[in-house]
Amino acid sequence: MSPTPPDNPEAGDEGYIRSAGRGVLLALYAALRSLKLYPLENATVQKALDDLQQASKEIVEVEGELEIRLAGDFIFVNATRLRLELDNFTAMSNVMNLFRSFRVGVLRVHPRVERREWQALLSLFLTITDDGMDERQSILHERLRKAGVTGLEVDQADGQDAEDELRHARERSKRTYSQGVAVTKEVINSIRIGRTSNLKRVKRAVQMIVDQVLKSETSLIGLTTLRDYDEYTFTHSVNVCIFSIALGRKIGLTKLQLYDLGLTALLHDVGKARVPIDVLNKLEQLEESEWQLIQQHPWRGALTLFTLRGYDEIPYRSILVAHEHHMKTDLSGYPRHIRPRALGIYSRVVAVADGFDAATTRRAYQTTPIEPDQVLREMWENPRRGYDPVVVKALINLIGIYPVGTCVILDTFEVGVVASVNPDPAYLNRPLVHLALDSDGSVIPSAAKTVNLAEQGSDGSFLRSIVKVSTPERYGIRVGDYFL
Ligand SMILES: [Fe+2]
Ligand SMILES: [Fe+2]
User: Pseudo-torsion of CA 315, 319, 322, 328, nearest 10°?
Assistant: First the structure.
């Protein structure tokens, strides 16, 4: 255990609130415990309630307010975080658990608080035992109102709304993602059996993806980690579409351009519908002739796009991207060019999105995916890969040094899964991480605890840092569980 640094002598107010806050927490716990053990009339109970009323009144008088707030694993009293120490550990953790079991995030004590109101609140805390935290909280609200308690106010955690919003965003993302996979599948399969396909539904799916990336890019990007082997061509197309749109946004394309880019990205591999499935999915090393078939997919895709209906005009951009997406900036790659040309910006964006997704996915002819951080480094550092450096830079900015879904080992011996890039661009190498295993190796339920690696202790050192990247399988972690 690291030693607790001494109180900052200048932080006088903070010192007061820290000890007074601790006092009120201890009084709250003592009152709860005695009320649990003895009848109300008992002298111990009465004394405990007196103490609680007194301690809370005093803070309200000195500070003008008293607010006890739960945030993550911490208790704050008027915005000052209480330290968990040996002598207050039981009290703090009991109060924390009690608040949590009612989904209470904050308790506000108003100057008009009366002793009987404390008594009412604590009795309700002890007697409402309905299932469901939400039910318990609404019953608590109702009874407090009936009892005329106005000096004490309990409320959901501030983060609660944000949490609900996050959950909804995730659900929306999942729907959009699977919609994208479904329409891609439909297009490719109908081309395979020789039917032309109407693009209206594809366009709608792309619009949904654009709208969601513009609203919140992280939740859709999280889904790109759920790479499904059986559906590789389809999920890959959707992933490339999501990455391309997010990259296009970073380099400043307009919304209309993003729709266009998204459609070209979703259809970039449409030529694979013209490659026999057994070649596409072959597990062993490809024969030279088979490799040639695969290399035909860009121009075959370009030809196919001429025959698709649903475009208002000939989809030149999509045709170009299908044709160019395996060409490198020096024009090596395939198909071989005949005349000198400059790759279009859409092709350069899709090439980066395509290269990143392909390299990080477990594919038929690539049994171990390379770790995302290595992929990024290679794309950035090796000019022979032939990616546009401006677009690669945008990709690094988009997903951070450690992309979403990367399994990371921390210096606290915890193991986690990268949840999103740090909202503060100064901390590209310090993402938000869902903890998966605690320092003893015990499993933490998925997404139950998310930490910000930029978080610093009171001495200014980081609480957690990444030591290395690992494969999730090694720790029995299913990355997908963290994004569903
Ligand atoms: Fe391709
Ligand atoms: Fe591709």
Answer: -120
Q: Residues 6 or more apart from 132 whose CB is under 8 A from it?
A: none
Q: So where are the chain's domains?
A: 12-156, 161-399, 407-482
CA of 325 to the centre of ligand 1 (A): 6
CATH number given to 161-399: 1.10.3210.10
Distance 82 CA to ligand 2 centre (A): 52
Spatial separation of the C-alpha atoms in residues 159 and 177, rounded to whole Å: 26
Distance 361 CA to ligand 1 centre (A): 14
In this predicted structure, what is the pLDDT of residue 299?
A: 95
Q: What is the DSSP string of 96-131?
A: HHHHHHTT--EEEE-TT--HHHHHHHHHHHHH---S
Q: Please state the pTM of the whole predicted model.
A: 0.62
Question: Would you list the DSSP string of 276-310?
Answer: -HHHHT--SPPPHHHHHHHHTHHHHHHHHHHH-B-
> pLDDT per residue over 109-156, tens digit each?
999 999 999 999 999 999 988 777 778 888 999 999 999 999 999 988
* Cα 310 to chain centroid, rounded: 35
Cβ atoms of residues 409 and 435 within 8 Å: no
Ligand nearest to the CA of 326: 1
Task: Give pLDDT tens digits for 29-63.
Answer: 999 999 988 888 899 999 999 999 999 999 999 88
CA 161 from chain centre, in angstroms, equals 16
Cα of 161 vs centre of ligand 2, distance in Å, is: 38
- Ligand 2 ion: nearby residues, β-carbon < 5 Å: 269, 354
Distance 348 CA to ligand 1 centre (A): 13
Comparing C-alpha atoms, which of 276, 288, 323 is closest to residue 304? 323
Contact of 177 with 161, CB cutoff 8 Å: no
